[in-house]
Design a protein that fits this description.
- With about 325 residues, this protein is an alpha/beta fold.
- It has helices at about 1-25, 35-50, 60-70, 85-95, 105, 165-175, 180-195, 200-210, 220-230, 265-275, 280-285, 320, 325-335, and strands at about 30-35, 55-60, 80-85, 100, 120-135, 155-160, 215-220, 235-240, 250-260, 290-295.
- The protein folds into 2 domains: about 1-125 and about 255-305, Periplasmic binding protein-like II (D-Maltodextrin-Binding Protein, domain 2), CATH 3.40.190.10; about 125-250 and about 325-335, Periplasmic binding protein-like II (D-Maltodextrin-Binding Protein, domain 2, 3-Layer(aba) Sandwich).
- Strands 1, 2, 3, 4, 5, 6, 7, 8, 9 and 10 form a 10-stranded mixed beta sheet that branches.
């Protein structure tokens, strides 16, 4: 009888320990993140401190992680996916890799900044703008991104390679806002003006403009403010294009989050999403990179032009994914490097 009770006690202790281990394991989320760790870790640390839920980041390029999710299928360990590009998020939805998020969690985000089926939601927005050297002459004619094709800018223009995700997204917005023919002519003109000197990063374009190697460049807005934070006397300024009466407005893109179709921790995953779209989460997520919070009423960093103070192109973010292949075909047709 004594041995029976001792054996029973050991079994009970093992059961409790295993249950505790399972609980600890369950209180952990794995996130495939296309966002740099330095821009997301402060938010993750706050979330874990508030909830006790551990978050493990598997960080890489958004497109690579999306392909990883597709290949892994129901074997994936990912509970959530974060992308710096709405195009990847929408493509993931079309590939049936995600599941809908509760509406009452994401209804604080405008409809044009999330999937129409609720499978992903935008968390921060960036604007496609022009960085201009203050000392550059004869640039008063530049009012639109389409003016970048003007022959007067030959050798003076900085753009990225067309494989850049933001470049692709911008082209999609411009085509949907105008026409295929107009965008084709624009791309041909920019290709001529940029010549053989194309940039691998937006930060390099900003540096080239700041040092006078280029007079003007097409970049995401936050690269300008990153440069000015390090070099406050840099002779550059931001130009918001296409703001006239008939202007299409500035192209936007969003970073966002989706929940894996195969997660076994849906409630925990939705807790993290709820924190991302909370006022505190929005300030942390967008503020880390001088981006725009997607939640209405949450202000962007004071150094950037206020949301609502300028015209934004009327293109829903999901279109950046549904039209991705058409844009890539267009770039190939023009022969954009």
């Amino acid at each position: 009888m004594k041995r029976f009770w001792q054996g029973g006690l050991v079994s009970l202790l093992l059961t409790v320990l295993l249950a505790s281990a399972a609980t600890v394991q369950a209180e952990e989320l794995i996130v495939y993140s296309g966002r740099k760790d330095k821009f997301i870790k402060p938010l993750i640390e706050k979330f874990t401190a508030k909830t006790g839920i551990k978050v493990v980041l598997h960080s890489a390029k958004s497109t690579a992680l999306l392909n990883k999710l597709r290949i892994e299928g129901n074997r994936t360990v990912a509970d959530l996916f974060i992308s710096n590009d709405a195009g990847n998020l929408q493509i993931g939805s079309q590939l049936d890799l995600f599941q809908p998020i509760k509406k009452d969690i994401i209804n604080v985000i405008p409809e044009n900044l999330k999937a129409d089926d609720g499978t992903w939601v935008g968390l921060s927005a960036r604007a496609r703008v022009l960085v201009v050297n203050n000392k550059a002459k004869d640039l008063d004619f530049v009012k639109s991104v389409f003016d970048l094709a003007d022959p007067r800018l030959k050798g003076r223009l900085g753009i990225t390679h067309s494989s850049n995700g933001s470049f692709i997204a911008g082209v999609t917005v411009y085509e949907l806002s105008t026409s295929k023919e107009k965008v084709m002519d624009w791309l041909k003109g920019m290709k001529e003006n940029a010549g053989s000197k194309l940039f691998s990063k937006h930060s390099k374009i900003v540096k080239a403009v700041a040092t006078g190697k280029k007079d003007i460049g097409l970049v995401n807005h936050y690269y300008i403010y990153r440069h000015l934070a390090k070099h406050p006397d840099a002779p550059i300024h931001i130009l918001l294009p296409d703001q006239g009466k008939d202007g299409m407005g500035v192209a936007w893109n969003v970073a966002g989050i989706a929940m894996s179709k195969y997660t076994r921790k849906k409630q925990l995953a939705e807790k993290l999403i709820a924190y991302f779209v909370s006022e505190e989460g929005q300030k942390l997520f967008a503020g880390a990179n001088s981006e725009y919070p997607t939640r209405v009423g949450v202000a962007a960093a004071p150094e950037v032009p206020a949301a609502g103070s300028y015209k934004v192109a009327d293109v829903p973010m999901r279109a950046l994914g549904t039209n991705r292949m058409k844009t890539l075909d267009l770039l190939d047709h023009v022969g954009m490097p």
